[in-house]
Amino acid sequence: MSAKNEDILDAQRAMDEADCLVDGPAVERALENLAGEITTRLKDSNPLVFAVMNGGLVLAGRLLPKLPFMLEVAYLHASRYGHALNGNLLDWRVRPTQDLRGRTVLVLDDILDEGWTLRAILEHLKAEGATEVYSAVLVHKDHNRKAYPGMRADFTGLDVADRFLFGCGMDYKGYWRNAPGIYALRGH
Prior knowledge:
With 188 residues, the chain is of the alpha/beta class. The protein has one domain (3-184): Rossmann fold (3-Layer(aba) Sandwich). 29% of the residues lie in helices and 28% in strands. It starts with a helix and ends with a strand.
């Protein structure tokens, strides 16, 4: 059996055995609440909204239609260099190409786990001249290993246990980003 086929079987087994922490209807309610909070704060700001690839793609697709105001949409793709525990050195796969000077920016991502990459992205956007930079995540993972004490996104849909999560943009070995709920790997 090829390595790819083993990954497929492993991903299916992971879903079959997973604990559903948040079902689809609860995710939908969280998205409605998130949209309401974002609308209240940003409706008059003509924001530029970035989806962070790949995890933020699902959140963007589900959240943007719920925002009843003018906005522009873009995407970016970055990861931290190596395994550095701090700093804002990013490996940009797709850099923002828009002029950010004077703009209000909203960054959408699936999860705030430790937050190092999100922190570096936000710092980069500020350094490029954005007037205001906000972050929104579907999931805030509950633990004390954040990039700085008390770190939270400006807008958060759900607080979820510190487990290996997948679904709603988060993946297991590249699979299940499309799962409608939030699942935890059994035993993790």
